[in-house]
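worker-3 :: picked ABC transporter ATP-binding protein
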Amino acid sequence: MPPQIPHPDPGTPDTRGPMRYLWWLVRCQPWRVLRGSLLGTAWMIGLSARPYLIARAVDDGLRTGDTRALALWVAAIVVAGVGLSYLGIMRHRTMTFIREDAKARSAEVLLRHLSRIGAVLPRRVGAGEVSTIGGSDIDWTAQVLTLTGPGVGAVVAYGVIAVVLWSISPMLAFCVLVGVPVVGLVVGPLLRRLERAESVYRRQQGALTARSGDIVAGLRVLAGVGGRDLFARRYAARSQELRAEGYRVGAVNSWIDAATVAIPGLFLAAVVWLTARMAVTGDVTIGELVAVYGYVATLIVPVWFLLEGSHQLIRGRVAARRIADLLNVTPDDVGGPGRRWPDSTPEARRPDQTPEARRPEARRPGSVPEARRPPGPAAPDGPADLHDPVTGLTVRAGSLTGVAVDDPATAVALADRLGRYVVSGVTWGGVPLRDVALDEVRARILVADHDSYLFAGTLRDILGAGADDDDERIGAALRTASAQDVVDALRAGLDTPIDARARTLSGGQRQRLRLARALHREPEVLILIDPTSAVDAHTEARIAERLRTARAGRTTVLIATSPLLLGRADLVAHVSAGRVTGTGSHTDLFDSDPAYRHLVARGSEEAYR
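worker-3 :: tokens ->
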């Protein structure tokens, strides 16, 4: 049977708890799970057939000297071995498909959800946590599905062997029926202890992974300010704590692994000792002694699967709980009609990502195709003023507005409100922004952070250019961002592959590419947060001049404290202590507002007089 390709829609997971999530993975492939259960059961029951055949060969062939009967029973043993081999191969193959399907389905669900929650993710979950969940937790969750095949077969085989032993000796059957639950009682406390230790370990592992990612991302800065050794020591200390926690998990694991091997062996020895005494007294035949040994030895396999399955279930529950918690992270309630989250069909893509919306004539303000507009209060048909009642800021339509904020956190919060990433009272052309369909807002208002993520791909991909975009329009965006030299320095130009975060480029080059990417989108409203903080003054002056020309007639908000940028704005608003305290040209504010002068001059007022 060829492996099934996961459906483009992985389905809607049940995130009400870890066991419900695991059960959802089972329900997504019922026929394959049923086939795995049947094959696992047939394989384990088949294991108990060989001791019976060996017993018949001993009693009917060896003890009686009947060569013909011995040959027949030996042939039956060979045939049974071949059949068991085939069942074992098919069982393992089917269970591999089940686990791989569960991995792919969990990965698709997580990727879809992470793309949905967007900007809220960094505020709720650390990058290391997401990395750990997307890696090992998905794998541990899929491993639990082994219980649906060999696990079911182990329970059935346990019952079948108990019935067979009852036909030989009720006392032996009683020992088996009582002994296996006792094994579970012995291992149970270890499993519960493992679950607690595993939960702590995985949480600390996610935190340490996040810290390592932060250190690597800021290694140049740390080296420049002399903080590399300090962070290295802190990371080493956290690593030692994680190692100690790992030792605790390993200690419990070692006891469980030892019990998984030792307890079934001791159980086998006890039953064989009891059967040997019965053979001496004549209660069972030699063949039945051999059969009982074979049955109990065979019973070790399902007992081992049950113990191993319980071990996997504990780890899987911890992993599934972490996956469910991440899937339960929801976007901030930004009010109004929500986005119709796209899956994978072309009809479900965002309006601004469809081929129609990418055409030049579709880039005019309010150009989202009417048929694709989600329901909700109508957004302004054309350029309109944005007003933020929290700060009292009004952004005039079609103007280049500079906003100088004395607190970086206030600046980011302002951008979040204007871009409708949080609930607010911002109005757009008199219409509450929270009541406009979210797809409409995302298609027409773009918030560009100076440190936004750069995905791996060609430079053309990074800029968000499609196959229908001509190089002239791409070049215009690069020129405005003063980033053409970045392209010229690459061996294949726009088609040069760039790694994730563009680590091979300098900080200033990355920032200019981010600006070019935002300009290439040509949004109706563009909100830029410190777009030139990592470039030199000469480059910043060029960008300021070109940005004013490129965005002429379109609404642009520059949230920055750079006098070179603010000096090119049509209107500058000074936000202090969370409120607009003054508006006017950069020169007017610089002359009349000491606080503004101190903010933008960075303590060197004389240099800007």
